[in-house]
Design goal:
Elements lengths: L1 E11 L7 E10 L2 E6 L11 E4 L3 E5 L1 E6 L15 H13 L4 H17 L2 E8 L2 H11 L2 E8 L1 H19 L7 E7 L7 H14 L3 E5 L3 H11 L3 H7 L7 E5 L6 H9 L2 E4 L1 H6 L7 H6 L3 E4 L12 H16 L7 H8 L1 H6 L16 E5 L12 H7 L6 E6 L2 E5 L2 E2 L4 H15 L2
Helix pairs in contact: 2-3, 2-15, 4-5, 11-12
Length: about 425
Amino acid sequence: MSILISSIDEIYTLDEEKQRISNGHIIIEDNKIREIGTKKNYDHSEFEQIIDGKGKIALPGLVNTHTHAAMTLLRGYADDLPLETWLQEKIWPFEARLTAGDIYWGSMLAVIEMIKTGTTTFSDMYFQMDKVGKVVKETGIRAVLSQGLIESNDGQEGLLDAVRFTRDWQGEADGRITTMMGPHAVYTCSPEYLTKIKDFAAELDVPVHIHLAETRNEVKIIKREYNCTPVELLKRIDFFDRPVLAAHCVHIAGEELDLLAEKGVSIAHNPMSNMKLSSGVAPVIKMLKRGINVSLGSDGVSSNNNLDLIEEARFASYLQKVTEFDPTVMNIEKLLQMLTINGAEALHLKKLGRIEEDYMADLILVDVKNNVSYYPHHHNLSNLLYAGSGRDVSDVVVDGKVLMKDNKLLTIDEVKVYYEIRKIVKRLTR
């Protein structure tokens, strides 16, 4: 498959030179970017598909490093509650009634929202993950999947099933699916259980995805039970000997941050969920100063309540500006890096996160012509991140295949998905 995207107003490449190419084009061959330039005349017969980029800007596809896709089914179901109450009294009882089919359709709904708002890769931790893998295969999106493990629910049987899933799905969907092991958190998995998970991750040669130091109460629980912090507990069992993607990391400071930097831990920062659940503000600037790789995640829709990474980035910036009393931190260039390059690094995906020759052809176009938020056009990237939203994305390409063109999804029957979601929610809330 060869694709020409022509006459693009601006291309934000994020390559080593951080080029911004005006009135440019991108040529895609199979699943790779073949050429980026400013050529005006093309032989259209060379290409199987042509996309008009006039009035649009091109960016690398956005990477969501922490979510629970099927939790779209809980959007608006339980709001304005503390995390522990929210989980134990609302979310977990609801999830206990979910079927494998529910997970499939809830994940499909999430993928619709992600594609429509510019996410081309997502990292998902949930259950019934074979169904999520099926959704990824069918829709064309890219994903890193982890079967979530809570010791009291899953035990040894669940752990072995997670190992099976991790092994079986690695490299599936023409390489668009990769896997991680996914212990939920240190307060839902004992040190012994976490050690088993770490050892299986080493055997399978995959990273580990875990919630870490999300709330003060989590820190309090671990201190009471083990006389240490969550980070110190993981250090005791050599958990960081594996590559780790740690979600949240709100209540971490000082030497713990030094340890995460030393061990090469990547952070999935989820500012909107942290604000909505009143978990706190992650010390992102301190992380960045130590050279820690910080990416962005949405968390589940039930605590956000959307999957729009542009909105996530805006709040990430504003939160750090106000807590640091410094308007220069988390500028638009840093935000775009966190949304793309840093996300790819956190998920251990090579040749991803840039618009560069020989990189994976994952990219998005944003309509800056037919949207009031982009006028006047002083700086389109600033307008996107500080005034626009992911809903301004008009075209999405993943792995060299067009998933959305001129706001029309090409791989998903939206009407069918909405019909199935209505049936599921009617049954679950009867």
